[in-house]
Amino acid sequence: MAGVAVVADMAGAGGVEAIEARNARAMAEVAAFRAAREAGEHGRIDARFHRFKNRFPYHGFVEVEAAGERFAMLSTNDDLVAMSFFWHGADAWEAMSTRLWRNWAAEAAHILDIGAFSGLYSLLAASVSPRVEVLAVEAARRTYGRLLSNIQANGLEGRVRAVNRAASDGPGIATFKRFRGENILGIGDSLFEKRGLAIQAADERVETVAIDKLLAAEGFVPDLVKIDVEGAELSALRGMAALLAERRPRLLLEVTPETVDDVVGLLDGHGYRCQAVDEAAARLLPLAAGARRVGNLVAEHPAFR
User: Fold this and answer.
1) Highest mean predicted confidence (pLDDT) among 32-36, 195-199, 201-205
2) Strands, DSSP E only, in the chain?
3) Is residue 182 pLDDT above 60, yes or no?
4) pLDDT one-digit tens code per residue, 118-161
5) Given a cut of 50, is residue 10 above it in pLDDT?
6) 174-180 LR contacts (CB < 8 Å, sep 24+)
7) Half-sphere exposure of 156 (CA within 13 A, CB side)
8) Could you tell me the maximum CA-CA distance found in the chain, to the nearest angstrom?
9) 204, 179 in Cβ contact below 8 A?
10) Is 38 strand, coil or helix?
């Protein structure tokens, strides 16, 4: 991308021609963006990232390379995951977690992605092996639509199934809260309020489902699970008690400072051993050494089959 020349401003241009001109200009700025990074800034979403992203918008498919696997993700300059790969390059999002996920997916046959967002982990898992099947659960309607687009664009409709539901401990209807404006896909949107964050909108109603019930209806038994549900981890885990007790799948899950202790306690009750993922240092840490922050945990059961 960095080798594409800047296209001159095209006064009066419109339609596809204007989009292509803007995209070419954005692609020409990638090299400058990457050259100015300092150590430890790879993948960082900071003020400079947003400055480049907003000044040089890109609308189209982004080539994603994560943990050695390659696929495409659509962005209308609104998906921070896809745009991280556009500006930063390979392994721009949760590099340690995606590497672990890729390695585990290579050993799995059926994979459950709860809180799939626009599909990074689902697409990565399906790219590892043609035998992998993925069930991707995403609650937000707009993000669910992007997930479907990414599945279709990569030709994975036969192996990645998407479900527009919110994982919880039972059936019902809940209000989905958005903490960002309409111009950004809702990373961080949640069924719960968040300390220090103003709710931008709470007008979307979503159907909740217990994962055990969903899996039974789908006839799907996963041996690898990712959970990223922005504060609803406990509800999601309670709704998959049978899966945890009977199948004991490997887990990669995001926790918050408010949920980490209860999540670890619940998983400990099921016999799981948890470690914190240190993305920057590319290592796993004992929980006692991991800061109580928003971040990923890995959880494995000694009897995992």
Assistant:
1) 32-36
2) 59-66, 69-76, 110-114, 133-137, 160-163, 166-168, 172-178, 201-210, 224-227, 250-255, 273-278, 283-286, 295-300
3) yes
4) 999 999 999 999 999 999 999 989 899 999 999 999 999 999 99
5) no
6) 174/205, 174/206, 174/208, 175/202, 175/204, 175/205, 175/206, 176/139, 176/140, 176/202, 176/204, 176/205, 176/206, 177/201, 177/202, 178/140, 178/202, 178/204
7) 31
8) 65
9) no
10) coil
Residue 204, classed as helix, strand or coil, is strand
In the numeric block, the tokens 């990569």 are attached to: 154
Report yes or no: 294 and 247 within 8 Å, Cβ to Cβ: no
Q: Which tokens in the block code for residue 6?
A: 């800047």
The mean per-residue pLDDT over the stretch 42-70 comes to: 96
- The beta-carbon contacts of 260-265 under 8 Å, at least 24 apart in sequence, are 260/287, 260/292, 260/297, 262/234, 263/233, 263/234, 263/237, 263/297, 264/297
Tell me which residue has tokens 């050695």.
Answer: 68
Q: Do residues 159 and 132 make contact, with C-beta atoms less than 8 angstroms apart?
A: yes
Q: Which residue has the tokens 């204007």?
A: 18
> With the C-alpha atoms ordered 197, 200, 203, 205, is the resulting torsion angle positive or negative?
negative
* pLDDT tier at 200, thresholds 50, 70, 90: low
Average pLDDT of the residues in 149-178: 91
3-state SS of the chain: helix, strand, coil percent to 5?
35, 25, 40
Does residue 204 surpass a pLDDT of 90? no
Whether 6 has a pLDDT exceeding 60, the answer reads no
Query: Is the distance from CB of 101 to CB of 125 less than 8 angstroms?
Result: yes
